[in-house]
């Protein structure tokens, strides 16, 4: 899946956004990620499932305030893959002469 840090699984725009959101925190509620990405629950679920199957995201379900809640977190492997992917994108940008802001 990875070539020089570039990870095609993470590279898909929605999965990249999910990883970026999760990289900034220990854990995020599914609804927050859904709202931040602006996609439906079913679309987000599909992408989260792919990240989970790759071992990049951990899904935790629990009851809170008498409702089933779902939390998402990057695993150690997910954090490593995301950091490697971002580094690969930075290298590509540098090769293209695009300055990082």
TrEMBL record:
Residues 14-92 form the Winged helix DNA-binding domain. GO terms for biological process: regulation of DNA-templated transcription. Pfam families: HTH_34. InterPro entries: ArsR-like_HTH (IPR011991), WH-like_DNA-bd_sf (IPR036388), WH_DNA-bd_dom (IPR027395), WH_DNA-bd_sf (IPR036390). PANTHER family: BSL7504 PROTEIN. This is Helix-turn-helix domain-containing protein. It comes from Allosphingosinicella ginsenosidimutans.
């Amino acid at each position: 899946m990875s070539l020089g840090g570039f990870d095609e699984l993470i590279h898909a725009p929605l999965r990249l956004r999910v990883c970026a959101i999760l990289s900034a925190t220990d854990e995020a509620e599914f609804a927050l990620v859904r709202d931040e990405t602006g996609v439906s629950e079913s679309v987000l679920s599909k992408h989260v499932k792919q990240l989970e199957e790759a071992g990049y995201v951990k899904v935790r379900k629990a009851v809170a305030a008498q409702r089933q809640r779902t939390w998402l977190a990057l695993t150690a492997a997910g954090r490593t893959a995301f950091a490697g992917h971002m580094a690969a994108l930075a290298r590509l940008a540098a090769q293209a002469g695009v300055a990082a802001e």
